[in-house]
Structure formats: structure tokens, C-alpha cells
Amino acid sequence: MAPSATSSIFQPCCSHEDRPRDPSSPSSLFRIDMHTHIMPPRLPNLTSDDDDDEYAGDHDTNSRDRPQSQPIPYTWPTFRPAPDHAATGAVDMYVDGAFFRRVDRSCYDAEARVREMDAAGVDVQVLSTVPALFCYDAPATAMSGAVRLARALNDHVADVCAARPDRFVGLGTVPLQDCGAAVAELRRLMRMPGMVGVQIGTSVEQRFGAGVMMLDDERLEGFWRACEELDAAVFVHPLGYALTRENKGRWGRYWGSWLVGMPCETALAMHAVTSSGLLVRHPRLRLCFAHGGGAFPALLGRIQHGFDCRPDLVATKACGVTPTEHFRGEAPGSSLSSPNGSTAQPQLLGQIWIDSLMHDPDLMEYVLRKLGPDGTSRIVLGSDYPFPLGEVPVAGKMLTEDERLGRFMTWRERAKILAENAIRFLNLGPEFEKRFEDRWRGFESARQLPAGELSKDGSWEGWRHRDSAIDLDGEEHLDGNGDKKKFSSRDLDRSPRSVSAGSL
């Protein structure tokens, strides 16, 4: 169907860093796209009963909870050439034996992917599998196949990363329906060069009467401990396709499972995480939620109110940490009793991150308010490449081109979201830090950005550049007393802290 995505497919070319670019253009800023999907050109044969795999069957910590009966038939995902495959390279993906979606060549052809990255100005992609390939619903009798599939997907991602370590880093996948098998595969993939973490779903749908595991399920505690031990970054992505299977009449119309269901799935996962004390129990765990945290930021006020008015239903496992404190990354009044009776003070120093895929500058402004003073430090660029519902073909287009962001974000803050935050979240190290800083210094110098910038009211937004503020001359805002006042950029010269830009 297509060549294998290894180093042999990449043709010699000039370094991406050496390509000519205008340092004064926002398109020159370093970009790391945290949210991209990839799949191998072909899948392994998972229909055999081969159990020779060293990871199959030896790590089933939950086997006592599963019925030991005759094998349950399970239909694995498959790829087939699209009708126009010869001309376009497109592939049709089948899930549950039915057509699921068409996938373009760039989803499996690494060389085509690099060409599109160059055209879009994306320096690095963080690769993760297509969520339809999680196969969390594979039953216990098919766990050998689930493990083999995860290994094949991870080997492919690692091969692509090894071929171009300057352009790709990887997130693996694990058979999360079995904690022992998931931990074993996590340990294996984290030893591979270029692999820095794992992508998981918002829940683990176990069919055939086994129910659903949410992320706070006690059966996943061993997985979270392993993520902490291995310093594995965790990217959480919803599974919209499962909703249509669950109730096609509700979710199958008007693309509802993707447009509404997926954000709701993410919100439900974040609700489970923030209500269960999960991050208090695992203080070194860091989670990044796709699609700007889905519907959770918009629901935060309602969830917080429920936490306050019905703590008997919401707060019993939260270790005293409110949903708002979780999202803001602070927990000043909380405590956690340890087994020996002592009390530890949890420091939720930014364990919850989100990507930038919101499609709306107004929503970005609101989310930054909810994230708190360091909000721009916990958002990473995410495009959902190569799928059409994402920010494609240009990842970061809103951050670099939408003038409305200038009202509440500086270029430095935008540059952080475009790349610097991902470097920190993924612990990519000094080489990536240098690439980011070199590009930023060139941009800063070419744009002649001023050293003194308009101060915010100290609540959330950070700093704003003088050139953005000048555009606001004559606009009304509320002063510190709540009175209307016309903004003048001359105020910047008299007192850099005299204007509350948060109200502009």
C-alpha cells in the first residue's frame, strides 16, 4: 500500500533550520504541534491465536475479574485502499467491520508529512496514533492481539521519530483495558529513542458486559504510578466513534459525536480526574487534554457549584481540592492524609494542561482566565493534523494570524504556546530549548519589540505589547473603580500599571 515509514524513505534535503524565512513574520516562530495523528501503512495480522509474545498473558492483573470462557469474536480495525488510492494514496479505515473514515496519504507516509509540515511552517510534530486504533474494547480473550497491535503502532512511531529526530517526537499507546499489560508496554516504549509519553482515551469502554472504566478507576492506579516513575507525559484524547456505537440515534446525526460528544467526553474525564483526588495521589503526573479541554472550561462554574452545594456527591474523594483549584494548578487549602496518619499538603503545580485547538479567540481568552495567572504556560499548540476538523493545513494559524489575540496576549505568550510549553511538558531538553530561543530572539529583534509592555491587572493575562495597545486608542474600558474611561496609549508613558487591560 505504501512504503514503510523508516529512515530509508526520507530523501536528503537541506536542514529545516536552514530554510530561508522572514524573522519578523509570526510564521518564523518555532512551532511544535502537540496534537497530531499517525498510523502505519499496514496493520499486523491479529486474527491468529499466536500467544508467543513475551508481553501477552503475563501481566493480566485483572484476570480474576474476567470470565474464563470460550473466545469472544472480535473484529479488528483494517485498512483498505480507497477507490482513488492509485492517484491519491488515500486509505479507507474500517472499524467493527464497517467503513469508518477516509485517511489521506500524509497520515501514514512520513515523507509526505514532512512536506506538509514545511509548507505550513511546523518545525516538530508530536506523533500519536489514531484513537480508533486503541481497541480498548478488545475482550480478555483477545488481549494477545491488543498487545501486538499496541506494539506495532509504537514500533512504527518510534521508527519515524528515529528517522527524523529533528522533526518528530512520539507518544505511544497501550492496551489500557489491562493495567498490567499497559504498564509492560509503557515501560517498553519509554525505552525507545524519541518516545516521550503516551496517548490514552478519556475512558476505557469494555464491551461484552465488562462495563466502562473512567480514568479515576482504581484498576488504573498501577498505570498512573508507572507514568510517574517513568516521567511519561500523558495526552488524553476522546473517543467520539464509541458514542455512535453506543446510541446512533442520539449521536449519529449532524456529526454530533464529533462536534458535541467528544468535548463532552473530555469534560467527563476531567471531572473524574478533578473529583477523585487522582492528581493529589500522583503529584508528579501531568496530563494534557485535547481540544482545549473540551467542554470542561465552560462547565467549570457549574461543576464548582456542585462541589460546593453537594459535597456529599462530588467532593468525598477530592482530598479537599476544588475543581477550580485543580484547573488553575493551585491548592492552597487542601490536605491529604497518608497511610501513617501524617498530613501532606498537595501542590498541584500545573498538572492539568490543554491544547490550543479551540477555533475561537474569545474562548481562548475565557480559558486563559480560568487557567489562572500562569494560563499561557499550560497551553500547547495542537492541530489534530491531518484531520479536517482540526486546525489544518496551518497549525497555529489562529495564534499567529488572528489580530483579536493581540488584545489579551503578547507575542511572547503566543510563542510559548506555539512551542516552549510543549518543550517543558514533554521534557524535550536543551537542544529544543535552543531552537526555540534562537528563533524567538530573531523574531524579537526583527520586530523591535519594546522591553516595557502594558501591565495587566495582575489577574491572568500576563503582558501586552505596546504596538497592540496602540490599536486600542479611543476604545472604552472600565477603570479600577468600575467607571467607563477611554483608553489612550499615552497612559503607558505615564504609568505602566495605570490601565487594567483585562477590561479592555
From TrEMBL:
<dbReference type="GO" id="GO:0005829">
    <property type="term" value="C:cytosol"/>
</dbReference>
<dbReference type="InterPro" id="IPR006680">
    <property type="entry name" value="Amidohydro-rel"/>
</dbReference>
<feature type="compositionally biased region" description="Basic and acidic residues">
    <location>
        <begin position="56"/>
        <end position="67"/>
    </location>
</feature>
<comment type="subunit">
    <text>Monomer.</text>
</comment>
<dbReference type="InterPro" id="IPR032465">
    <property type="entry name" value="ACMSD"/>
</dbReference>
<dbReference type="GO" id="GO:0001760">
    <property type="term" value="F:aminocarboxymuconate-semialdehyde decarboxylase activity"/>
</dbReference>
<dbReference type="GO" id="GO:0046872">
    <property type="term" value="F:metal ion binding"/>
</dbReference>
<keyword id="KW-0456">Lyase</keyword>
<dbReference type="GO" id="GO:0019748">
    <property type="term" value="P:secondary metabolic process"/>
</dbReference>
<dbReference type="GO" id="GO:0016787">
    <property type="term" value="F:hydrolase activity"/>
</dbReference>
<feature type="region of interest" description="Disordered">
    <location>
        <begin position="471"/>
        <end position="504"/>
    </location>
</feature>
<feature type="domain" description="Amidohydrolase-related">
    <location>
        <begin position="32"/>
        <end position="428"/>
    </location>
</feature>
<keyword id="KW-0479">Metal-binding</keyword>
<feature type="compositionally biased region" description="Polar residues">
    <location>
        <begin position="1"/>
        <end position="10"/>
    </location>
</feature>
<comment type="pathway">
    <text>Secondary metabolite metabolism; quinolate metabolism.</text>
</comment>
<feature type="region of interest" description="Disordered">
    <location>
        <begin position="1"/>
        <end position="77"/>
    </location>
</feature>
<feature type="compositionally biased region" description="Basic and acidic residues">
    <location>
        <begin position="471"/>
        <end position="496"/>
    </location>
</feature>
<keyword id="KW-0862">Zinc</keyword>
<dbReference type="Pfam" id="PF04909">
    <property type="entry name" value="Amidohydro_2"/>
</dbReference>
<protein>
    <recommendedName>
        <fullName>2-amino-3-carboxymuconate-6-semialdehyde decarboxylase</fullName>
        <ecNumber>4.1.1.45</ecNumber>
    </recommendedName>
</protein>
<dbReference type="InterPro" id="IPR032466">
    <property type="entry name" value="Metal_Hydrolase"/>
</dbReference>
<comment type="similarity">
    <text>Belongs to the metallo-dependent hydrolases superfamily. ACMSD family.</text>
</comment>
<keyword id="KW-0210">Decarboxylase</keyword>
